[in-house]
Amino acid sequence: MNVCVDRVGRWTIGWVFVVLGVAEMAVGVSPLLSSGPAIVAGAAVLLVLRRMFIQRYQTAFLNTFADAIDQVSRGVQAGLPVPEALRAASEESQEPVRSELRNISDSLALGIDFQTALDDASERIGLPDFRFFAITLLVQRETGGQLAETLNNLSAVLRKRKELRQKVKTMTAEGRLTAKIIGAIPFVVVGALMLISPDYIFTTWANPTGRMFLLLAFGMVMFGIVVVNRMTKPRF
């Protein structure tokens, strides 16, 4: 997942500066006059896209993770060792849970240490819910006990956490909608000006100072959207 996100980030940065460079050459203005605002605008776009991809991945993972834990528990109850139970659960799970469980099972089959395989997966996924699962497996490996019962309890806890996240998301829906509306207003105004008086926008863009302020305003708007979204999203 991190590899995919980093690749998207590199492509985003590249295309942002290519587009800005072409626009600057088209009007014959030195890139040095607007490089600072361009960096701000490009970084803002990159943050939004990166967060969007990460959130989409994590949401898809959490939607089926509790069911996958139940499948691992059933495999353990059937007498399978943990690596085989993870492999069996991966066959019945949906993406991206399937790929992650399969990666862990493959790592264990190659002789990688159990804790190392789980730590690597936890770093890739970046969710406390999966970290709870990893800690459960590690503690059971050290101390023994009824792993199936522990996994059943864990899946119940994760389902309650999912319900709580959905409730918080519903309660903060108004704030997130307000942030989207406020963030869209500058783009609506610019679009209206381009329809009503396009010379006003193009003249401002052709002017070095005007271009600098337009890019700076765009970067500030994107930064504000990111901040408001982070304030209205649960972190647990």
Q: Helix proportion of residues, in percent?
A: over 70%
Please give the CATH class of the largest domain: Mainly Alpha
Indicate the mean pLDDT: 76
Largest sheet: none
* Separation, N- and C-terminal Cα atoms: 20 Å
- The shape, in one word, is elongated
Q: Enter the CATH topology name of the largest domain.
A: Receptor-associated Protein
Compact summary:
The protein is mostly helical and about 240 residues long. About 85% of the residues lie in helices and about 0% in strands. It has two domains: about 15-55 and about 170-230, no CATH class; about 60-165, Receptor-associated Protein (Up-down Bundle).
Helix and strand arrangement:
Elements (H helix, E strand, L loop, with lengths): L1 H26 L7 H43 L4 H11 L4 H13 L4 H12 L2 H16 L3 H25 L1 H24 L1 H9 L1 H24 L5
Helix pairs in contact: 1-2, 2-3, 2-7, 2-10, 3-4, 4-5, 5-6, 6-7, 8-9, 8-10, 9-10
Describe this structure in words.
This protein is mainly alpha-helical and 236 residues long. The chain has 2 domains: 15-57 and 171-231, no CATH class; 61-165, Receptor-associated Protein (Up-down Bundle), CATH 1.20.81.30. Helix content is 86%, strand content 0%. Helix 6 (128-143) runs antiparallel to helix 7, helix 8 (173-196) crosses helix 9 and helix 9 packs across helix 10. The longest helix is centred in the N-terminal third of the chain and has 43 residues, at 35-77. The protein is elongated, with a radius of gyration of 24 Å. Mean pLDDT is 76; it is low at 1-9 and 25-34.
